[in-house]
Amino acid sequence: MAVQNRIRKVQKRDRSLVPFDQGRIVHAILRAARSVGGFSLDHLPGVNDRLFQATGDDEHLAEFLSDIVVATLNHDPRHWIANFPPTIEEIQDTVIHVLRSFGLVTVADAYECWRWGKYWVRAGELTLDQFVGNGYPTPFHEEILAWNRDHGCDTVEGLNEIVRSGKLPRLVEEATERYERELDEAARKVLARLEAGDEIRMIWISGPSSSGKTTTTVKLTQRLLREGLSFLMLNLDDYFWPVVEHPTDWLNDRNFETPEALDIQTINRHLKALLAGEAIEKPIYSFKEGTHVGTRRVRLRKDQILLLDCLHGFYPPLTAGIPKEAMFRLYIEAANMLYEGDGTGGRLTQFTDVRLLRRMLRDAQHRNHPPLQTLLHWHYVRAGELFSIIPLMGLADHLVNGGMPFDLPVLKPYFVPDGIWPHPEELAPYATFLDARIRYRRISELLRSVAGLTIWEAQDHALIPGDHLVREFIGGSIIKIPHNE
Predict the structure, then answer these.
(1) What is the rounded CA–CA span in Å between residue 334 and residue 352?
(2) Cβ of 46: how many Cβ atoms within 10 Å?
(3) Element (H or E) spanning 218, and its range?
């Protein structure tokens, strides 16, 4: 389809001007689609089926989407002027907007993760060996999938058979042992570096929302304390800007999921001061009042290691000027590698949806956030992690899987049929909020397909121990979870 295009040039990142080439947009969109197995993963009847009917195959669909990108860029008359063309960043922003506007969420995520990964490579923060592409699947994910396959829980049908046949306790035991071994290995790596002469002064535990960072931080700390190490924990939530500096969107929602929500410069300055042996006046933030309510004097002793559990712990500006040798970085992802149905369709469920369920339950139980609010907020979560979390996982010294193959059976009774999962009429006023509608439909179908436990079974500590990572979300944890207090 021919579209009018008055744009003749593009401004590169070094501000030089080059001829506009729509073919490059087509190629980028098609590469993102192919990296996740094609556009078909995002084909949703009633949402974008006419788009697929009109274009036929992936190549023609990518060309059509590029036409929409060009038409959108031409809407700004400034771009018609030769010396004021769109920048590469503006073009990339528009590609993401177009993909999401047509409900192509999986492809948009792949494009966005790749985009920001390349950004960090160009900035010198990542090497090409550390670049994780679209973030999925990686060798880390393939290893988890192989474990699940060996244990018969790599498909929804296989998992359902385990639940119905009473074999879930064994799966819980084996998956928990795997997770604990990964933490043992992390502790060994820390100790090995210390023995090799590295002066590790800070340990970062980072990963996407609701991946299990807090429980993992506690458990890793327990292992290292037994080895004689001493820690000072620093809660970076105290460095949020006051809420008056966080403008709300049309849903009266604020974006706390981006690193810009934190006072990065003060964090960096305080980290450097602590490592230099100086005392700092750490702010104290009140979420109830939405502002800082005081300070607390903090100093890091020479025999202490600074311990930081932070969503954006790998974000380079946080640790600018701090030697890499002084840090140990652990990355945790709740990677529930699970094929739909019996697996013959070759489509993996979205493990990001399991994290959304975890967070929805935690928010409802401990933060008084309605489940619908968490669903409508999730686009902020994904935007933040696709920029400064997932693309940077290659910086990790150690990877831990915080996802459990039994997450869905355990979570299900808290959501359906009489749990907190929003009813369709609750979502109805937000019909134009496509991201939330797509996730709602996908997760509703996933919950229907999974055999769940009863609430009483999920609450049974004989099945799921009180110190288990999953209890950070379903409740009943014997570990103190600061953000649940």
Answers:
(1) 8
(2) 9
(3) helix 213-226
Helix (H) or strand (E) holding 327: strand 327-333
pLDDT, tens digit, 9 for 90 and up, residues 82-96: 888 999 999 999 999
Rg value, the chain, Cα = 23
Cis peptide before 370 (omega within 30 of 0): no
The H-or-E segment that residue 280 falls in is strand 280-286
User: Is residue 317 helix, strand or coil?
Assistant: helix
217 and 95, same structural domain?
no
Q: Is residue 4 part of a domain?
A: no
CB 73 within 8 A of CB 79: yes
Helix (H, G, I), strand (E, B) or coil at 239: helix
- Backbone phi and psi for residue 283, each to the nearest 5 degrees, phi listed first: -65, 155
Give the tens place of pLDDT for each residue, 224-277: 999 999 999 998 999 999 998 887 887 888 888 999 999 999 999 999 999 999
Prediction pTM value: 0.94
Cβ contacts of residue 2 below 8 Å, gap of 6+?
none
Q: Is the dihedral of CA 385, 241, 281, 237 positive or negative?
A: negative
Please check whether residues 379 and 414 belong to one and the same domain.
yes
Q: How many angstroms from the chain centroid is the CA of residue 232?
A: 26
CA–CA dist 395, 31 (Å, integer)? 24
Cβ contacts of residue 21 below 8 Å, gap of 6+?
10
**Same domain, yes or no, for 42 and 164?**
no
Measured torsion, CA atoms of residues 463, 464, 467, 469, in degrees rounded to the nearest 10: 160
